[in-house]
Amino acid sequence: MARASRAHQGGSPILMRAGIPLVGGQMVAHARKRNYPLMISANAFSVRHTTGDRKGTFRAFRKNLSHLDGLDCALDSAGFTAAVIYGGFPWEIEEYCELAASRAWTWASAPDLCCEPQIASDRAMRLLRIAGTARLYGQARRITERLGGQPLMPVLQGWEPQEYRQCFEWMPIVEWPELVGIGSVCRRHIHGPNGLIAVLREVDSFLPPHCKLHLFGVKSSALAYLIGDGRSARRASERYRDRVLSADSLAWDLSARVGRRTGRTMEYRLGHLDAWMQRQDRQQQGPPKTIDPDNDAALQQIKQTIRDIVGMHLANGVVDDVIDYDDARMMLDRSSCWASAYAQQHGLAAEIDEEQILEWLVDTPI
To answer: Cα-atom radius of gyration of the chain, to the nearest Å?
Structure first.
């Protein structure tokens, strides 16, 4: 298995990093054997109190990370996880910077404040979070320089495309690095006023030409559109496609959890990881799937129907006490994306088969 998805003959390769939730044992050993490029969240390194009234609260980050030596491994600041689960970062910024400086990561992202609608419900709150992202970057840069660590990758935040320009203008950066992260894109549609293409179009208009992009958690269907062939490249713009250097996803593990709510062995989970990585490789080699924006209204209705089915499926899991509410809430958007992407790629009749949708969630780890 190649460490990165290979280029489609008509477009540039996009490196897909596999997110992994565990930072030791069989999962890391398997990734090393397969030579997978990885993305690991800072939250995966957190050590928590297990006794007394502080049970479950953050205590420190793991210090010995030598088992990761030799891996192509990037570090994510866990901004979305922190917002959803903890209501904010449970660690001090200096503690995160110490983690980032503890080893030679391929790159480590600066801490940022995500702007998804479920976190920031209106423009006023998004502007505060964008300003907070700029301030955090300045703080983290000063701490990292003092620690002697490698420079952190800046992350642009926003929801409406012009908000990413505001973030760019507020960032305390004179010379922009070669890689810049784009946050709050994993739950987006491809088209529309706030779709991925609209965001890339805006970012491309102000970001220096030498800057490449990492898209956090972007959907596989969106990457297929960006990679494109001659026709789809003209639609999406070859310039936007060539801006994107890499993306990441933990979708494979969420698919494993949906497929087997209990009794998941490590072998079962790693099988999902391999199938997902192979899917990314095939997607970049084979003819891309294109999405016709003229049919967007019909697709939105299909997506909502699929989302309702997925929601009921997860709700039953919560009621039966086989899945945690917070996990189900995080899985809802991602699970819907998997099935919706399959619907876009393969088509659906007006009659939607609920059993077929749930089979897709199990068998199609997008």
So the answer is: 20
Q: 197, 205, 199, 210: which is closest to 237 by C-alpha?
A: 197
Residue 229 has pLDDT above 60, yes or no: no
**Mean pLDDT score of the chain:** 80
Give bridge partners of residue 108 from the DSSP assignment: 75
Cα distance between residue 337 and residue 52, in whole Å: 40
pLDDT number for residue 2: 34
Dig out the tokens for 361 from the structure: 């969630």
| Residue extent(s) of CATH 3.20.20.105 domains in the chain | 15-291
CB 185 within 8 A of CB 221: no
Q: Is 120 helix (H, G, I), strand (E, B) or coil?
A: coil
DSSP assignment of 127-174 equals HHHHHHHHHHHHHHHHHHHHHTPPPPBPEE--SSHHHHHHHHHHS--S
Other C-beta atoms within 10 Å of 188: how many? 22
Q: What is the pLDDT of residues 282-327, one digit of tens each?
A: 766 655 444 454 455 666 676 777 778 778 877 877 777 777 787 7
Three-state DSSP at 194 gives coil
Q: What is residue 46's DSSP assignment?
A: E
Report the pLDDT averaged over residues 210-220.
Answer: 89
What tens digit of pLDDT does each residue of 252-287 get? 877 777 666 677 788 888 888 898 888 877 766 655
* CATH code given to domain 15-291: 3.20.20.105
Q: Structure pTM? A: 0.75
| CA distance linking residue 105 with residue 302, whole number of Å | 41
Largest CA distance in the chain: 62
> DSSP string covering 245-303, please?
EEEEE-HHHHHHHHH-SS---HHHHHHHHHHHHHHHHHHHHSPPP---GGGHHHHHHHH
Q: Exposed, middle or buried by CB within 10 Å (0-12, 13-18, 19+), for 220?
A: buried
With contact defined as beta carbons under 8 Å apart, do 166 and 130 qualify? yes
